[in-house]
Known about the structure:
about 40% helix; six-stranded mixed beta sheet
Amino acid sequence: MTVGPKRVANLRDVAKAAGVSVATVSRHLNRSLFLPEATVTRIEAAIDNLGYRPNPHARRLSLGRSDTIGLVIPDIANPFFATLAAAVEEEADARGLGVALRSSLNRPGRELKYLDQLRHNEVDGLIFVTNHIDESGALAAEINRVERVVVLDEDVPGVEVPKIFCDNESAGQLAAEAFLAAGHRHVGFVGSDAAMISTFGRLGGFARRIHDGGSQISFVCHGDYTRAFGRQAALQFIERGMPATALFAASDELALGLLEVFREASITIPGELSLIGFDDTGPLHLLDPPLTTIRQPVREIGRRGVELLASLDKRLDEAPSPEFLPVEIVHRASVQPPTERARERAAATRGRN
């Protein structure tokens, strides 16, 4: 006869052998109940005889904590979100915390499902990142049900929780100043939905500085932060006769999509068109030419998110003001003064935006 593996004893087995309730055994193990010496002796004897080993995860849950935080991000394959997740994992590990990671694929339905799962799985807190507009308000409502949550990178209006963003307006100003310093008078912007806090801030800062510098924005294209949309924007730019001598792409993924199409069309960077990206999370120095970009502190955003979450003991009566972390421009080789031909082309196509 084949003998199967010996069944592992559980809490119920210990309680039965000791002649007490499961709750009594659990509270004894958690040191939350004073018991008569005889009862303690029976419980300890049952534990030894059965070879019972407490489940540390279950024990933490019984104490009201899991030592795990949740992290919801739109896309783990995107270098920005991958870097952010790595920073969250690193800071959480330094604090003795695990991370339950969920990738929503930027779909509202998946976000709501994961928020509900994480809320009921008793995680000790949640770091949430979205990449779209919460048009129905359902996302904000679900986030507000979570006891301890921090929102990073993009805003979710109506959510009364701590939030951490980069200084998007300063980022736009830095890109504008680089173009103005190189002598560009007709520039363009490619970004996500205009209502997103990132695009609103980056375009706002960019436009104000460009106008203050006596130049004009002659091309604006809104979509999403993907390489695919970058390709679409590049095709639109070409179809409109290339009305700008320089483009600010509000993410490096957008910039890479733009570059793919421009290369196929034999449009040289920066010879015929200057280009600035945003994020600096990939090996942009290896591109030809190396891409000038706005570097946001991705790892610091993730680290600070965990730090802030760990400091929250309960739901706040009033959410603090959002934190805005500084950015910097990384000058490489994708920006140079416009050629006379590029200036004439942009001037000739003025008004076609």
